[in-house]
Amino acid sequence: MIRTENLTKTYGGLLAVNDLNLDIAQGEFFAFLGPNGAGKTTSIKLLTGLLKPSSGRAVICGHDIQTEPVEARRGISYVPDFPFLYDKLDPLEFMLLVGQLYGMERPEILRDSEELFDTFDLNGARQQLIENLSHGTRQRVALAAALLHNPRVLIIDEPMVGLDPRSARVVKNVLKQRSRAGMTVFLSTHVLNIAEELADRIGILNHGRLIAVGTKDELRRQSGHDGALEDAFLTLTRTEQEIAASR
Amino acid sequence: MYPSTFFGLLLETNARLLRRRVLAIREQSWLMIAVMASFVLGYWGASYLMFHHGFRFLASLPGVGGMVVERMLYLFFAFLFVMLLFSNMIIGYSSLFKSQETQWMLTLPVPAHEVFRWKLVETSVLASWAFIFLAAPMIVAYGLARGVGWIFYLKVFVLFLPFTMIPAAVGSLVILAVTRYLHRRVFKWVLFGVGAMVLLACVFFVRPINAADLQESQMIGALDQILRNSRFTRYPLLPSSWVAQSMIAWGDGWMWKGTFFFLVVLSNALLAGVICVAASGRIFYDGWSRNHSQGSFKLGIEMLDKTIALPRSWLLEPVLRLFPRLDSCTRALIVKDIRVFWRDTSQWSQFVIFFGLLGLYVINLRNVTYDWHNEYWAVFIAFLNLGASSMTLGTLTTRFVFPQFSLEGKRLWIVGMVPFGLKRVLLQKFWLSSVVAILITTSLTLVSCLLLHVPAWLTLLFSATGVLMSFGLCGIAVGVGALFPNFGTGSTANRRDDNPAKIVSGFGGTFCFVLSLVYIAVVIAIEAAPMWLQFYGGILRRDQQPWAMVGAWMIVSLISLLATTIPMQLALKRVENMEM
After folding, report:
1. How would residue B493 be classed by pLDDT, with cut points 50, 70 and 90?
2. How far apart, in whole angstroms, are the C-alpha atoms of residue B482 and residue B480?
3. CB < 8 Å to B21, chain A
4. Does A106 touch chain B (CB under 8 A)?
5. Rounded distance, CA A9 to CA B487, Å?
6. Minimal CB count within 10 Å: which of B251, B322, B527, B548?
7. What are the chain A neighbours of B106 within 8 Å (beta carbons)?
8. What is the pLDDT of residues A20-30, one digit of tens each?
9. pLDDT in tens, B164-186
10. Average pLDDT, integer, range B446-458
11. Is the distance from CB of A43 to CB of A89 less than 8 angstroms?
């Protein structure tokens, strides 16, 4: 579903993403981890076609995102950490707009929106303009809109920011459930226990390079830690100074 | 998805958003609606009267009247065209490359060039409506002066639509080319180069009409000079000249000639649109990706790029040490305000443009020659200069001082929690902005008075007035800024409170600007009253004038005290009870 081949992006002299090779299957829940500035957001922007790679390519749903962007994007939904929403629309109006932009018919949008509003507990917010909603509620509206057209791939950046524990639990359940139903989820996060709890496989990016990829157990083995994912992550992303100091 | 579907959906959505924004006005206070309405009507009324009298005066000039009126139209449209071009480029850049909406649209299953087309339409509407609003009084004044029927206004409105498309398309092409093919570093130097050339051209070539030439005996010579200097506006390849010719022809009743030039405008607008849309295909996406792949924009001036080094301890601290009675909290707030302002690049562009225009004004003062031994002219020019300086200060305080309290917005959790409270934060902002304003006003007044050979006593009077007005205008800006703050909606996706320019564009900013203008008008009217009474009314004798001036200044002092204390007192009371 998501395949990258030697995907590289440079910003002037800075190598933001270096030779990224990924192969994520249909229905897989893939968590993308990395310290601040590791290149996670740049990688996501390359996958969604928001940025052109310096070299290499990204293939989504069988279509190269650069040469067949429209076909590739038909199957993707992207939810950034601060999603764009029209402030003066209410959630249902926004769903209608997004659904129609993805070529859905109005009755179908209304039916699926009802279901998503129930799932994300948005019925209390449906009459209000988006500008009056809290950050967490806006985040849930954005997620509902992203899932409306049943994407084959969901790319999501820091989905739990601003969500209360109940909403976070709902989002986790929905993502897991959709993933089991065949949707590929590519989730970028700093929160290690979310990755630990949800992901089938985890990729760790550091200084633009994919330094480790595998299941939780594989990462633990690779790092030499049997405990929490946090220890494995910290070991794998150690700086040279930290390595030298530990010696 | 068909392009028409994409356009249709966005049109429908934007129509709904517009309707909601208009309906939201009803929820605003009546005071706000009244201020907005009086500002709009006041602008239309004053502009109409100015154009009406201007056209009547010019038309009455023997022999050349009609020609001068026509030339004014050519000049007006040439100026409008340049402004539209710049406006389209500035709005187009932020709309195409910096907007969150564009990023969202680029993730939809829609070709990038469709997104560009939509953004082109949106940009041209956003960039042009204000110019149509500004030009409306002039069109009405011209139409009434020519005695035309209502159909003339309709035709001119239709003529404006394709006219606004040309700068929109050209501006967007320039922006596309710059972002796609020019590295920021090169662009930056090109921009500096063009700016320097424009400044030099203004210094060497712009020669305002000498006031002395406007004496009746030399009027024809001066008009000849105007006509000669503005000949370039008739250049046949300028879109503005087609619009002017079309409007003049329709005003004179030559329907076919007017229609011909309308068709010239229309065909060129369509051609520009087609070229722009065709060129946008791949360039837009490439430019977008490139624009978001170049990191932060640097000015290339070491001192500014590194910052940011400027207001560090080596400069700020010694200056602040000159004031040993300043306590550490106030000192920390002053340092914070100066550093934040210095490092906020969004403030810089406007600040540079603002002071660039101010520089041009001062540079050109040396060309304003008049008989300064003639007391009437000396006083007239001096008051004109005071008006210009005060307006500058009023705009400056509204643009840069008014947003200060709102900008604290999300930082109030720390600034508001410090032991001395928000009242002192507000007072610190008032004193800091007043000191800066006094420095600017006093130097501006002294330099301009020197260049204009203003008599010493008037220079002293104006400097003292400048100090009073600095306090008054800063009192208004800080006070109204705290009374009508704009913290945004509190949503993290809404960055309104982070952008000072957007904070000013709200009700509070408009109210602050109107209040500042009223205050300036009152002060100048009171100070000019003794002169007016002497020169026009003949009521005051020459020996009474100094006393009248002193009296006027005392009244101005009282008004300035009220202008400073009333908004500040109200604001202090408000922040005392403010819930964060």
Report:
1. very low
2. 5
3. 88
4. no
5. 37
6. B322
7. 49-50
8. 999 999 999 99
9. 999 999 999 988 888 887 766 66
10. 80
11. no
Contact check, Cβ <8 Å, A12/B294: yes
Q: Which amino acid belongs to residue B58?
A: L
Domain ranges of chain B: 3-291, 371-576
Pick the residue from chain B with its C-alpha nearest to A131: B489
Cβ–Cβ contact A214 with B under 8 A: no
CA–CA separation, B276 and B178 (whole Å): 14
DSSP states of A200-229: SEEEEEETTEEEEEE-HHHHHHHHT--S-H
For residue B208, give the DSSP letter.
Answer: P
Instruction: Report the C-alpha gap between A100 and A89 in whole angstroms.
Output: 15
Decide: residue B15, CB within 10 A, 0-12 exposed, 13-18 middle, 19+ buried. exposed
Fold of A1-75+152-214: Rossmann fold (3.40.50)
Q: Which of A153, A171, A151 is CA-nearest to residue A161? A: A171
Beta-strand ranges (E) seen in B113-263 are none
- In this structure, how many other beta carbons lie within 10 angstroms of the beta carbon of residue B300? 12
* DSSP-assigned letter for residue B537: I
Residues of chain B in contact with residue A51, where contact means CB-CB under 8 angstroms, are 289, 292-293
For A136-183, the DSSP string reads HHHHHHHHHHHHTT--SEEEEESTTTT--HHHHHHHHHHHHHHHHTT-
Domain positions in chain A are 1-75+152-214, 85-150
**Strand order in A55-60's β-sheet?**
A14-24, A2-11, A55-60, A63-64
pLDDT at B202: 66
User: The tokens 């004004």 sit on which residue?
Assistant: B361
CB proximity A88 to B under 8 Å: yes
B-chain residues near A143 (CB < 8 A): none
Asked if A81 and A67 touch (Cβ cutoff 8 Å), the reply is no
Cα-Cα-Cα-Cα torsion B104, B107, B111, B112, nearest 10 degrees, comes to: 50
Using alpha carbons, select from A99, A95, A134 the residue that is nearest to residue A118.
Answer: A95
Query: Max CA-CA distance within chain B?
Result: 83
Does the beta-carbon distance from B9 to A97 stay under 8 Å? yes
Q: Return d(Cα A30, Cα A20) in angstroms, integer.
A: 15
- Cα B532 to chain centroid distance, Å, stands at 30
Instruction: Using DSSP, state whether B151 is helix, strand or coil.
Output: helix
Query: Nearest Cβ partner of A73 from B108, B295, B493?
Result: B108
d(CA B174, CA B93): 10
| Model-level ipTM above the cut of 0.85 | yes
Query: Residue B245's closest CA among B128, B156, B168?
Result: B156
SS3 assignment, position B312: coil
List, for residues A117-163, the tens digit of each pLDDT value: 999 989 988 889 998 898 889 999 999 999 999 999 999 998 888 78
Is the pLDDT confidence value at B483 over 60?
Answer: yes
CA atoms of A138 and A130, how far apart (whole Å) = 7
Look at residue A33 and give its three-state secondary structure: strand
For residue A7 the two structure tokens come to 């995907």
Residue B577, SS3 per DSSP: coil
**CB-based contacts of B538, cutoff 8 Å, min separation 6:** none
A:124-143 residues touching chain B, CB 8 A cutoff: 129, 131-135, 138
pLDDT single digits (tens) B192-227: 677 777 767 766 665 555 555 555 555 666 677 777
Residue B227: how many other CB atoms lie within 10 Å: 15
Residue A160 burial (CB < 10 Å; 0-12/13-18/19+)? Answer: buried
With a CB cutoff of 8 Å and minimum separation 6, the contacts of B196 are none
Give the span between the Cα atoms of B221 and B575, in whole angstroms.
60
Q: Which of B1, B13, B104 sits opposite A84 (nearest CB)?
A: B104
Q: What is d(CA B250, CA B481) in angstroms, rounded to the nearest whole number?
A: 48
